[in-house]
Amino acid sequence: MTEAPRQARHDHHRIDALIQLLLQPGSLQPVRDAARATGREEPELQNEIAVRLARCCLAGELTFEAADAAANALYSWMLDDCVERGFPEPAFSIFTAFDAGEFVRDPADGDPVERFTRPALRRILGDG
C-alpha cells in the first residue's frame, strides 16, 4: 500500500476520534488536547471535521441529530478563537447549514433537514 492511502485512512481515524470527543458532554478541553497532539492548526482541523461531518451525514453514516450535535460543539470550539482569527471556512458555513435544519419555520416547507440542510451541505461541498 502506498503512503498516501495509508495517510488518508489514518487522517479519517483521527478526525473521527475528534468527532467522537465533540459528541461527549462537558468540556471541550479533551478535544483541544487531542487537536494539539496532532501538531496541526486548529482551524485546519475544524474545517476537516466539518467536512467529514457533512459527508457522513449526507451518506447516512451519521444521523442528522448526531452530526448537528457535533457541529454545535464544533461551533463552541470555533467561537473561542473567532475574535482573533474569524471563523474558519468551510467549517462555519457547514455549521450554519446544520443549524438551519434544527427547527421548522413553516410546516408547509416540510422537513427542514431535507429542505435546507442537505442542499446547503451539497452546495458547500460542491456536490450539487
Please provide a brief summary of the model:
The chain has 6 helices and no strands.
Rough outline: globular
Helix segment count? 6
| Helix content percent band | over 70%
Question: Which spans of ≥5 residues are poorly predicted at pLDDT below 50?
Answer: 1-8
β-sheet strand percentage: under 5%
Topology of helices and strands:
Blueprint: H1 3-22, H2 29-38, H3 42-59, H4 64-85, H5 91-100, H6 112-125
Please explain how this structure is put together.
The chain has 128 residues and is mainly alpha-helical. It is 73% helix and 0% strand. α1 packs across α3 and α3 packs antiparallel against α4. The chain starts with a helix and ends with a helix.
Descriptive keywords:
mainly alpha, 6 helices, 128 residues, disordered N terminus
